[in-house]
Amino acid sequence: MSGEWKGWRSLFRKRREDPIVSEEPLYTMDEHDGLLDELVASTHTEKEQNINEITVSDRHPEAGFQDTTDDTDLPAKKKTFTAHPLPLEEVVIDNASPHAPSAPLEQQAPEEIEGTAIKTNEKKRTFRDLFSIRHREHEEYSPEKHGTLVDLSYKPSPGIEEVEVYPVHPPYAYIRILYDIVSHEYTYQVIEPILTDGEEEFYKEIKSRLFETLDISTRGLSRSETREILREACRGIIADYEIRLDPAEEEKILYRMDREFLGDALIDPVMHDPFIEDISCDGLMAPIFVYHTRYESMKTTLTYKDSTELDSFVTKLAQRAGKYISIAEPILDATMSDGSRIQMTLGTEVTAHGSTFTIRKFREEPITPTDLIEWKTFSSLSIAFLWLAVESGKSCLFAGGTASGKTTSLNAISLFMPPLAKIITLEDTRELKLPHPNWIPSITRDSFDTGGRGEIDLYELLRAALRQRPEYLLVGEVRGREALTLFQAMSTGHITYSTVHADSVASVVHRLENPPMNVPRNMLSALNLVSVQVQARVGGQRIRRNKQIIEVLDIDPRTNELITNEVFRWKPSSDEITYLGKSFILEDIMEERGWNDERMQEELKRRQEVLEWMRVRKIRHYRDVSAILMDYFRNPEDVIKKVRRDLYESV
Fold first, then answer.
1. pTM surpassing 0.85?
2. pLDDT for res 38
3. Closest C-alpha to 497, from 486, 513, 511, 510
C-alpha cells in the first residue's frame, strides 16, 4: 500500500509544527462534528431557555463543552435548526473558565503571563480557522534565480553531429539540429521540459480536475488573458492539494497545461519555429516530418503513439478552424487561427495508418520585394519593372508548380499598388495580407449540408466583387469556372492578378482553354504579363527563382497563336536573372506618360536604387516597405534624394 503513495502524493506538504501547540491533532473528525452541533445548538435554544439568561461562556466549563440543554427528545446525531443568526467566524471557542475572574495583567506573575499568552493563542482560533487551507505566498519563476527548465547539454553519439541549437519558445522549447554522417540526413530534435513520474501523475490529476471544474468562455479574451486564467486555475488546484512545488517544478506543469489547452499540443514547439514551412504527420507510430528553410525536409523526434490522442488532436484542429470532421466526412481542408493552411484526415477510413494532417505555415509578416531581392528570387531590375507595370495597371498571372512561390510573389508585388486604390482579394484560404487601408479580403464558404446549400465559391465572390467597382482584383488561385469571369473582368478594364498551376506560358494557355476553366483564346490577349516561378537546386540547395517574365502581346490572326515577348530570363548556370533588351510594356508606359528612352531608363534606375537601399538598410517588414513605396508614389524626388545620399555616402 505504501508503494502506491510515492507519486505526486509524496509531494504533499506537511503542516508546520507550532512550538506552542501540541503535536497531537487539535481535533478529530468526530470532534469536528460534535463541535459543530454544539456551536449551532448553543445559539438556538430560545424556545427552551431564555438566551438573555444563559451566555455562551456559561455553557463552557473548563473541562470542555458541556451542553446543558435537554437532548433526550432529539435524535442521537442529527438535529434540525433554523438559520444561524451570527457569522460563524465571530463565534470564538473559549476553553477558559468563565467563572474565575482573571487579575489584571500587570498583577500576574511572569509564569502566569506566559501561560496566559499560550492560552490566548489557543483560544483565539475561530470556527473558520478549523477548516481553512494554509496557502504559502506564491513565487514567480525566474530563469536567473531558479535555473533553466530544460537541459541543453548534449552527449554526442557515434556518427551523429550537433549542427546547431536555437530557441523557438524560450525558456520552454528549443530545437537541436543533428546530422547523421553515415546516412547524410538531418534530424529535428525538440527539447522541452521533462516531467518526473510524480510530476507527470500530478499533471494528469490537475488536468482531470480542470475538465471537471473549469467553465469559462474565452470569447472576447486575448491569448494572454486566457493564459493567465488557466494558470490561476491550476495554481488554485495545486493549493487545494497543499503540494510543495518549487517555482521551476510549478512552471513546468503550467507550461504543459498551456501547451495542451491553448497551444498545439505535441507540435506546439514546431509551430513556434519561424524556419518551418510545412509540418506533416503521416499517421500513428510514424515520425512527424518538417520542411526547414535551411535543411529542407527532415524527420523530427516527435511521434504520435496513441490513436485516441491523434484523433482528438485532429478533431480539435477542425473545431478551432470552425469546421467539422467525422468518420462520415473524414477529409477536411481548413485555415488555422494564425492563417496556416491545413489538410487533415480522420481515422483509418481513407488513410491506412490512422489520422493524418499537413500544415502549411503562414508567415505572420508577409514577404516583401526586399526579401525577394535578398533571396535572389528576382533581380532588382525585374522587381523595378514589375513595380512600374503594377503602378501602370498591367494585369499579371503568376504561374508555377507546387511550393514554387507563386502566392508569395503575388503578395509581395501587391505592395506596389497605389496607396488609396480599392483592392479586393478573393481566396479559398486566407494567405494574402496587404497594408492598404482600402482593402476588402474575401474568402469562400463551404455549404451547410451535403446538398450544397449556402456554399459560396470563388465564382460567386468574383461576381459580387465586380459590383463593388474595384481598381485591383487579386484571386488567390484560379482553377475553375471563376477563370472565365476573371478574364471577362480583364477585358472590361479591371486590373487583375492571380496564380495558376503551370510551368510555362504554353501550359498556362492549355489549362485556361480546357475544362473546367474554358476561357476562349481570344480573351487571353487581355492578359499583359505571365511570371513563371520555379523551384530548383543550385549548389545542392533547393531554391526558388523567377524563371521568366513574359509579355502577352496579341493573337496571331492567321495561326490563332499567342504573340509573346520574353523580357527576363533566369540562367541556372550562373544563377542570374538577365534583361533580354526589349519590352513592349515599357514602351506603352513611355507613350502613356510622355517619356523618352532616357527618362524611362532614369526611372528604372531610381526604383532600383530605392529597392537596393531598402535591402542594404535591411528594411524587411511589410509595413515599413509599404510606407517607403507610398512615399515614393506621392513624393518621388524627396525620397530619391534621401536614398542617394544614404547609399553613396555610405559607399
1. no
2. 57
3. 486
